[in-house]
Structure prediction request, 427 residues.
Amino acid sequence: MSSPLKKVILIFLLFLVCLYISLPIKKPSQIKINNEVKLGLDLAGGSQLVFEADTSKISSDKKNSSLESLRNVIERRVNLFGISEPNVQTSTFQGKDRIIVELPGINDTKEAQALIGRTAQLVFSEVVEIPGKDGATPSATLKSTNLTGADLAESAVTFDQNTGKPAVSLTFTKEGGDKFATITGNNVGKPVAIVLDNDVVSAPNVQEKIVGGTAQITGSFTLDEAKNLSIQLNAGALPVPVKVVEERTIGATLGAESISKSIIAGLVGLGMVLLFMIITYGKLGLVADIGLIVFGVITLALYKLIPVVLTLPGIAGFLLSVGMAVDSNILIFERFKEEKDRHSTISDALEVSFGRAWDSIRDANIATLLTAFILANPLDWNFLHTSGPVRGFAITLALGIAISLFTGIIVSRNLLRLFVKERKVKQ
Prediction:
C-alpha cells in the first residue's frame, strides 16, 4: 500500500486541477470548459412556449394517453436539441389541451419552436412514370410505400462520401429493413424518393437490392439542418397536431439581488460549520474543514464538467450533501473519543474509529443515494413523478454524497494518518 504522504500529494494535485476548473478565469481555447456554472430557469430566466393541441379527432378515452405521448415526444426533442433541464408539462383549462414548455437560458426560441412543432413525417415513395400522350414528354408521379419513419430504429448525422456534404444516415428496424430490401429490389435502375413532410429531399437511383437495413438521406443540407432533421426523426412524429398560442421570456424568479443574498447566506452558514468543527474537535476539526473545502472545489468542478444545470432545488441538494459530509466526520470523531481510551496510541484509535464508524456512514449514504435515485427516476417509470426541478435536486444530492464519501473517507483519513503522531494515549 502506498504511504499516506503519496496519497496526500495526489489529493493535493487533484485539488489544484479542480480549483483551476472551478475558478472563473479564461481557459485556453483547446480546453472546452465553461467558465460559468449553468443556471436553471428559476435562477437565470429563460423562455416559455405554450402549445395548444388539436384533440378534436381523438376519442375521449384516448385523449389522456395521446397528450402524454405528445408531452414525451416534445420533451425528447427539447433534450436532443441540447437544452438542459427543460420543464415540459400538460395543462387542460376550459376545454383546451395545452403543453407548457420552459426553456432555461434560451432567449431566442424561434429555432426551438420550429423544431418542437414540426411533424417530420418521413415516407419512402416509388417513382412511377406516366407515358405522355401523342409524343408528349412522359411525366412521373410518386407512389407511397409502406416504409415510413415509424420503421426507423435510429438516425444520425453523417457526411456524403461523394460530395462531403452533411447527410442523415438511417438505420431501420428488422421489419423496416425487410421492407427496404423489398422496395429496392423492385426498383433496381429506378429512383426511390425520400419524402419529408410532402417535400422530396432526395431521389437516388437504386443500383442494386439493398439489404442490411441502412440508408442515407442526401441533399443540400447545412450541418445544422442535418442535425435538426436527425433530431426530428429520432424523436418521432408528433402524435397530435399543435400550434403555438403563447411565447414569452421569463425573468429569473429570484432576481440578481436575491441570488447574491443567497450566496452570502450560504457562505455565512458554511463558515459557521467550519468554526463549529474547529471549536468542538480542535485539530481534528481543522482536518475535517480541509476535507470540506476540497469537497466544495471538486463539486463545483464537476458541475462545470458534466455540466449540471443549477436550480434552487439543486442548491438545496448540494447543501444537504454538505451536511452529510460533515456528519461523516462527526461520526468518526465521536467514535474516536471512545476508542482513544481503549488503545495505546492515537493512530491505532483513529484507524479503529474509521473502521467502526464506516457501517453507520455506509448505511446512511446508501439510504440517501437510494432516495436520490427514486427522485431522479432515470428509468422513467410511469408510477413515479418526473419533474425537472426534482431531478435537479436528486442529481446534485447524489453527486454530493459520492464526493463526500471520497473526501470524508479518503481525504480526511490520509490527512490524519500523515499529521497524527505516533504517541501514547494519556491514561
Remarks:
- The two ends are 32 Å apart (CA to CA).
